[in-house]
Write a structure and sequence with these properties.
Elements: H1 2-20, E1 30-37, E2 48-51, E3 57-59, E4 65-70, E5 75-79, E6 86-89, E7 95-99, E8 109-111, E9 116-118, E10 126-129, H2 131-134, H3 142-145, E11 153-156, E12 166-169, E13 181-184, E14 187-189, E15 202-208, H4 211-214, E16 225-230, E17 236-251, H5 263-277, E18 297-299, E19 323-324, H6 331-335, E20 339-352, E21 355-367, E22 374-388, E23 391-405, H7 417-423, H8 451-458, E24 463-479, E25 482-501, E26 515-538, E27 542-565, E28 588-609, E29 613-624, E30 633-644, E31 657-671, E32 682-684, E33 706-709, E34 718-731, E35 736-752, E36 768-788, E37 792-809, E38 816-818, E39 829-832, E40 839-842, E41 845-848, H9 852-857, E42 860-861, E43 869-871, E44 879-880, E45 886-889, E46 895-905, E47 908-918, E48 921-924, H10 927-930, E49 975-977, E50 980-991, H11 997-1000, E51 1005-1013, E52 1017-1019, E53 1034-1035, E54 1038-1039, E55 1047-1048, E56 1055-1065
Parallel strand pairs: 1-7, 13-16, 42-44, 48-55
Antiparallel strand pairs: 1-4, 2-3, 2-5, 5-6, 8-9, 10-15, 11-12, 13-14, 15-16, 17-20, 17-56, 18-19, 20-21, 21-22, 22-23, 23-24, 24-25, 25-26, 26-27, 27-28, 28-29, 29-30, 30-31, 31-34, 32-33, 34-35, 35-36, 36-37, 37-46, 38-39, 39-40, 40-45, 41-43, 46-47, 47-50, 48-49, 50-51, 50-52, 51-56, 53-54
Helix pairs in contact: 7-8
Length: about 1050
């Protein structure tokens, strides 16, 4: 038991050491050395020793020892997670031997905004993410690991390796980009992928959710701020750590669970659809409708008769393809296979009182469960810090390189390999008789592309991304409590993407050209931040912290794309845009670029009285080059206050209440996410748009220009006014922790580009400030830590979040505007006053017509007939048409919940994490294929068992009818409840005792574990995965992802993962 307790304390100490190692160590006038131990004399690793009222402090090393320079009369606050803190006044002593007793949970030091403070002193809405538990989820990006880990966050992610994830803090605040601002070691990053930072390098993470905590970041904080601190070195001998895991993954569910895989079953769908429509059944594939059979060949085919014999010796590629019929192709099974994923991280850290370092390298390799898709990352990080007297210097620097092949999946949809799994009929084989690809060349086979062909043709189209991210900094302790800091950060990105296009001779609509598109992107952002920080305590009651700063940021980027077609070879070594390799007349080139800058002044004052009363005020003034001279600058103030009720005398007799703090805040943040240069009119041109053959001889062109974008010099910031009220409570000797917040966020001056009348020409409309949006909601976090006896410990964490999004106004004239998403169904997204952004748009259904009498009694509806869907006449005008389309649902959840359970018994530990999304809806647009068989696609099995007939009137699917082009209209028939509960992670670990052989081998820690992810999902959603990734869309240069979320276009599903891992420290 003693060994277990010692190990547990050591692990807790290592975590605390990492979380608190961001404290800056400053030189003072007297050197104090000492140790911190528990009541059993075991050293507490990572205990915090902080000079009260300042940010001066240190942490204990692996032996529980520390060294700190202080002035006589200083008060040291000594704390360690799970132990009662001590305050020690420094007199003449130079050595301290400190013993801490287990007791009330102590707050850690957290980074909030250009500074650090005790969590117990925070009076804004700040969530501290448990990064150790977060990393239990396998993912290329820390964004994929965040789901359910902090109240108020919603995360959308998919199963494609390296895919984008979207994080939303307390809902959606803009018609445009809603990604939060990420601050990584003081460097601002706005990136929807964030997979070029190794999650294993992350030490701590805080989410600033309200304006009182986030407004110090001003113009970029409208969508919340996530502050990330990477691992620092620790005082003590060098420590080497190696963490690795290897596993196998497979989709949580496949489309073969509902798509037909037997051609003869599909033949019955075809036969019934045509007979119910009163038209002839095609005979060229299945022959006699009364006795359908599978032919020997599906190509060549005369369009009328089955092909039973072909001289295969006449096969000639590509002019005479011969394709045998398949007895039943399971396209999902052909595309998806179990695949490996492995992750390796090696780090070395250490240091002394004058310098610390942490160096790490990582390798992450995830093969996609879809064939020929993969994602890899190579990462390196070096963080170090040096002290000399009153000066501190250091750097945090990382380089990452990622490569991936996505199979052309991109942004989902019918053209992807998953879309074509839906479209491809089961009678089509994977390959033809000559080992080329099988295809839907014959009539009545549809227009699907071969999914395997798509993946194999794309297997060498590799995307490469490189990122250098980091900063160098210097700090000087000018006077006692007064310090100055300067930091210069940089983010450099260089991306390259090659896409070679192969012919599709196997298709019913074949292409015959070999072509190449290549693009290169380069971007650099530098950030220079200078701050003064003054901290002062006096009379043992008053605590002041004042921060003032200046910051400047500049971004520059360029994009270059070239293309050419008509290649004479498909050899990968010839994939260059050179006239000698392809048709020089097809060569094209395109480039663009942009730049922007921000300059800022900011200040913050925090005051605490008697550890009971707190006030904080912040103001930031930003100037952005994205706006015109009259509106370039914005001021973003914030104010918050807190009252530690438990510190009052009338609360002292409540034994079960350790701490209770009530807090409230108000503030303003901004958003400047608009394409650069849009305050001015922009002109462009080209040979096909504005160049003109003045001489009329067809041999010469004169350059001309047209208006491409209309500018608006009056454009200004979006402003988000946020109000937050909440409380923090600690109960039963720190065993129970409660954090609750209620908030309202109102965004005024939404940046929006309204549609122009056709008479305005083809120029992009101007961006204007005309809209208003509101989010109301609450966040709740509950945590409990308990112990049974001396060997068994357990904990639980519950995070709940609810928000309601509402569009308050648009432009004073419009009540709505359409989201521009829908494809073949027309527009299926509406943004309407009084409703959430990105709501679904269509007709309402009222069951299925059961008889001709019902048809005649109903409002006039095109195509109305027994067995077809009956639509609601919403406006009551006696006709069902496009005017009756209304809001039919939305993707916003009513509640999100994350539940973590942890157990430890001696050297064993176990963790379970569950996530739930409740009340969100999904528009399953794949039903236009799987139910309504658009373009003769494959369909769901239930069409044979649950489609309407005169004998099956309680069916949920309309009658099979080849002529029914009406029931497939966009309606709530496509909308389903997307609520689900998922077991995100189950982990069981064992830490080997380090005494004996392991100790002699140099191990200070060795832990083995097994893990299962996404083991089960409970949902009523009928498609394969209710956890949908975001559909990235850009309109007029603005990310409008939140106007197209919740739409299932054919999802690359989340993966079940089973893996084994090892964590070793030397």
């Amino acid at each position: 038991m003693k060994g277990y307790c010692y190990f547990t304390k050591k692990v807790m100490g290592m975590l605390t050491l990492c979380l608190l190692s961001t404290l800056t160590l400053f030189g003072q006038s007297r050197t104090i050395t000492g140790t911190v131990v528990d009541v059993n004399g075991q050293p507490l690793i990572g205990a915090t020793i902080l000079v009260k009222g300042t940010t001066v402090g240190t942490v204990t090393d692996l032996d529980g020892a520390f060294t700190l320079e202080v002035e006589p009369g200083s008060i040291l606050d000594v704390s360690f997670t799970g132990y009662t803190n001590q305050e020690i006044t420094i007199g003449d002593q130079t050595t301290l031997n400190i013993t801490l007793e287990e007791g009330v949970l102590i707050d850690e030091i957290v980074v909030t905004g250009y500074s650090s403070q005790r969590k117990r002193d925070i009076i804004g809405a700040v969530s501290v993410v448990n990064t150790d538990e977060m990393k239990n989820v396998t993912g290329s990006s820390f964004l994929q690991q965040l789901e359910g880990r902090a109240a108020g966050l919603t995360v959308s992610t998919g199963g494609a390796p390296g895919s984008r994830s979207t994080v939303r803090v307390r809902g959606v605040s803009s018609f445009g980009n809603n990604d939060p601002l990420y601050i990584i070691d003081g460097v601002p990053v706005q990136d929807g992928f964030n997979n070029l930072i190794n999650p294993n390098d992350i030490e701590s993470m805080q989410v600033l959710k309200d304006a009182s905590s986030a407004s110090i970041y001003g113009a970029r904080a409208n969508n919340g701020v996530i502050i990330i601190t990477t691992k620092r070195g620790q005082v003590g001998k060098a420590t080497v750590s190696y963490d690795a895991s290897i596993g196998v993954q497979s989709p949580v569910k496949g489309m073969d669970s509902y798509l037909l895989t037997d051609p003869l079953d599909y033949a019955q769908v075809v036969i019934q659809s045509h007979r119910n429509a009163g038209i002839d059944v095609p005979t060229n594939i299945y022959g006699n409708p009364d006795n359908p059979t599978i032919p020997q060949y599906i190509w060549p085919n005369d369009g009328t008769n089955q092909t039973q014999s072909v001289d295969e010796s006449t096969y000639s590629f590509p002019d005479n393809l011969i394709i045998r019929a398949s007895p039943g192709t399971n396209w999902w099974d052909e595309v998806f296979d179990p695949s490996p994923v492995h992750n390796h991280n090696l780090s070395i850290s250490g240091g002394n009182e004058s310098s610390t370092y942490n160096i790490s390298a990582g390798y992450f390799d995830q093969d996609g469960t879809a064939k020929n898709t993969w994602w890899k990352r190579y990462s390196f990080r070096a963080n170090s810090q040096f002290k000399s007297g009153r000066f501190t210097f250091g750097e945090n620097l990382s380089f990452a390189r990622a490569q991936n092949v996505d199979g052309g999946f991109g942004n989902q949809g019918e053209g992807t390999f998953i879309g074509n799994i839906i479209k491809a009929q089961p009678i089509i084989p994977v390959y033809d008789v000559g080992s080329w690809y099988g295809g839907a060349k014959a009539n009545s086979l549809g227009n699907a592309s071969n999914p395997i062909a798509i993946l194999e043709k794309d297997k060498d189209n590799v995307f490469t991304g490189n990122r250098l991210l980091g900063n160098v900094f210097a700090e000087v302790q000018i006077l006692d409590g007064l310090s100055a800091r300067t930091s210069f950060g940089i983010q450099y990105d260089a991306n390259k993407d090659k896409r070679f296009q192969f012919p599709s001779y196997e298709n019913s609509e074949p292409t015959t050209i070999y072509g190449l598109t290549e693009n290169n992107f380069e971007g650099i952002t530098w950030t220079w931040t200078n701050t003064l920080n003054y901290t002062r305590s006096f009379a043992d009651r008053h605590n002041f912290t004042v921060i003032g700063g200046y910051e400047s940021i500049r971004n520059e980027n360029t994009f270059l794309e070239g293309n050419i077609s008509g290649y004479v070879t498909d050899d990968i070594n010839a994939w260059y845009i050179q006239s000698a390799l392809a048709d020089p007349n097809t060569r094209g080139v395109f480039s663009n670029g942009g730049f922007s800058s921000i300059v800022s002044l900011f200040g913050k004052i925090d005051y605490g009285f008697n550890d009971k009363y707190y006030v904080s005020a912040t103001v930031r003034r930003d100037g952005s080059s994205r706006f015109g001279p009259e509106n370039r600058y914005g001021v973003f103030p914030a104010f918050s206050a807190g009252w530690r009720v438990s510190g009052e005398s009338f609360m002292q007799n409540i034994s079960w209440l350790d701490d209770l703090k009530i807090r409230g805040g108000w503030g303003v943040t901004g958003n400047q996410q608009v394409p650069t240069g849009r305050v001015f009119d922009q002109f462009g041109g080209g040979t096909n748009s504005s160049f003109y053959n003045i001489n009329g001889n067809g041999s010469s062109l004169a350059a001309g220009y047209v208006l491409t974008s209309i500018g608006n010099p009056a454009l200004k910031w979006e402003e988000n006014v946020s109000t937050n009220v909440g409380f923090d409570a600690s109960l039963i000797q720190g065993k129970v922790q409660v954090v609750f917040d209620v908030y309202q966020r109102s965004v005024d001056g939404l940046i929006f580009a309204p549609t122009l009348p056709a008479t305005a020409g083809n120029a992009s409309p101007p961006f204007v400030n005309i809209g208003e949006m509101q989010n109301k909601g609450w966040d709740l976090s509950l945590a409990y830590n308990g112990r049974i006896g001396s060997d068994f410990r357990f904990n639980t964490d519950l995070n709940l979040g609810h928000y309601k999004n509402e569009i308050i106004s648009i432009d004073g004239e419009q009540d709505f505007f359409l989201g521009g998403f829908g494809g073949r169904l027309g527009n299926i997204v509406i943004n309407e006053i009084g409703s959430p952004i990105g709501s679904f748009f269509g007709l309402k259904t009222d069951g299925i017509f059961q008889s001709q009498a019902e048809v005649e009694a109903h409002a006039t509806q095109d195509g109305a007939a027994p067995g077809r869907l009956r639509f609601v006449d919403s406006n009551g005008d006696g006709m069902v048409n496009a005017e009756d389309k209304v809001n039919i649902g939305n993707y916003h959840p009513d509640l999100t919940a994350g539940l973590g359970l942890g157990f430890a018994y001696k050297n064993f530990d176990a963790n379970i994490f569950l996530f739930a999304s409740i009340g969100n809806e999904i528009f399953d647009i794949t039903k236009e294929f799987t139910i309504f068989r658009l373009f003769s696609t494959n369909v769901r099995e239930e069409l044979l068992t649950d489609s309407w007939t005169a004998e099956r009137t309680n069916a949920s699917i309309p009658r099979l009818d080849q002529n029914d082009q009406f029931s497939s209209t966009a309606s709530d028939f496509y909308v389903e409840d997307g609520s689900y509960l998922r077991a995100k992670n189950i982990q069981l670990g064992y830490t080997l005792p380090t005494a004996g052989m392991l100790s002699r081998a140099g191990f200070s820690k060795l832990r083995l574990y097994v893990q299962a992810e996404n083991v089960f999902t409970i949902t009523g959603y009928s498609n394969i995965d209710p956890a949908l990734p975001a559909v990235t869309r850009t309109v007029n240069g603005v990310d409008v992802t939140d106007q197209s979320s919740g739409i299932d276009r054919g999802t690359y599903p989340t993966n079940k993962i089973f893996l084994f891992g090892i964590s070793a420290t030397f």
